[in-house]
Amino acid sequence: MGTLADLEAHWYIDLTIPLVAALIGYVTKLVAIRMMFQPLEFRGIRPWLGWQGVVPRRAARMASIAVDTMTRHLISARDVIARLDPDRVAAEIDAPMRAATDGIVRTIMTEYDPDVWRAMPEPAKRLVVARAQAEVPRMVRAVLAEIQDDPEAVFDLKGMVVTNLVTEKAVLNRIFLEAGRKEFRFIAHSGIWFGGALGLFQLTLWIFFRQPLLMPAFGLVVGWFTDWLALKLIFNPKQPKRILWFKVQGLFLRRRREVAADYGALIADEIITPRKVIQAVLTGPLSDRVFAMVRRQVQGALDHSAGAARPLLVATVGSTRYQEMKLSITGQVMARLPHTLRHVETYAKEAMDVRSLLVEKMQHLTDRQFERLIRPAFEEDEWKLIAVGAVLGFVMGELQALVLEHLT
């Protein structure tokens, strides 16, 4: 039991108790937040001795949960592709496609009919190239129109986003960190206020009892309780509630408009970009269907550009070689498309306007759906983070007890 003499002799030391409690609350929150996102890769000795950030460790599941909300309620493959104007796309890539066609035609003719091509005068060669180039805009429009008729057949939006987030764990971290930056700041700062408040109660008990076990016990409580309470206040209550003179709602849900703007900008700038969409369409798991579309258009364009000379061309190289020529041209067109289509990225970003689309649709999500944008980062292994906070609080409390015993 503490005495008045103890209080008078050590009052300045006793006053450090709520300060240390506030420090425990703050430090345990910072550690918990860091453990959610860092390190990106496992560090330590597998399988048990070490750590990898909760979000990076479960990147596939985290990404899948977040993307489920995105692709189910916010954006679809059709939303992305349908906004592109085939005529505008054809115009944007007309010059690079014509240059590519020149090289493709000369290479193919040299490979499949070298004698005739060498004997052909240059004006005649240019005419052959020009006829092929004239087919390019029509071919581009036709392929894009066919893709727009059934975009899901060639573009797996969810697969593209999940793949990108799993391979780029830093970007996955940024989605949660930027969308919930104020929530994470609140968690850290709340540790100071909640910890300090518990520290005042701890100080009262210390004055009366002066039991060293109070320090680690309260350190554990501060580390555990402040973590748990901060997480609860971020998402609860889901609907605004009036308590006395105050209107209370979960911090994340209260910031819908601000979160929507940040989230939409990040997804548009980092995830659903024209370059990544093009790459997914041309090289993704459904790219064989795009190849088939291009092949049909190339074959039609080659037959049309050959015109009356087509029977002579078939007789010269043979029908089998003529079909091989078509496939070879298709392959070269597909190989050059990623570079060629980079000329359309500026227009595509403006036309797709993913940011505005996401921001607009996010306003119509239910509270539950909106919560799923960031909640997965807290749900997975949440108990571990709270437990770590409790353990750290206990250790810091024990150190505090040793210091107090030494000083008093």
Explain the overall architecture:
The protein is 80% helix and 3% strand. With 408 residues, the chain is mainly alpha-helical. A hairpin with a 2-residue loop joins β3 (241-243) and β4 (246-248). α10 crosses α11, α11 packs antiparallel against α15 and α17 packs across α19. The strands form two sheets. The chain has a two-stranded antiparallel ribbon. The chain is built from 24 helices and four strands. The protein has one domain (4-407). The chain is elongated. The model is unreliable at 1-9 (pLDDT under 50).
**Biggest pleated sheet:** 2 strands, antiparallel
What is the strand arrangement across the widest sheet? Answer: 1-2
Q: Element order, helices and strands?
A: HHEEHHHHHHHHHHHEEHHHHHHHHHHH
How many domains make up the coordinates? Answer: 1
Instruction: Please bin the fraction of helical residues.
Output: over 70%
Number-wise, the strands total: 4
Categorize the overall geometry: elongated
Overall SS class? mainly alpha
What's a quick, concise take on this entry?
With 408 residues, this protein is an all-alpha fold. The protein has one domain. It has helices at residues 4-14, 16-37, 54-57, 59-74, 77-82, 86-92, 94-112, 114-119, 122-149, 157-167, 169-179, 181-209, 214-235, 251-254, 256-271, 274-283, 287-306, 310-317, 319-340, 345-352, 354-362, 367-371, 375-379, 382-407, and strands at residues 43-45, 49-51, 241-243, 246-248.
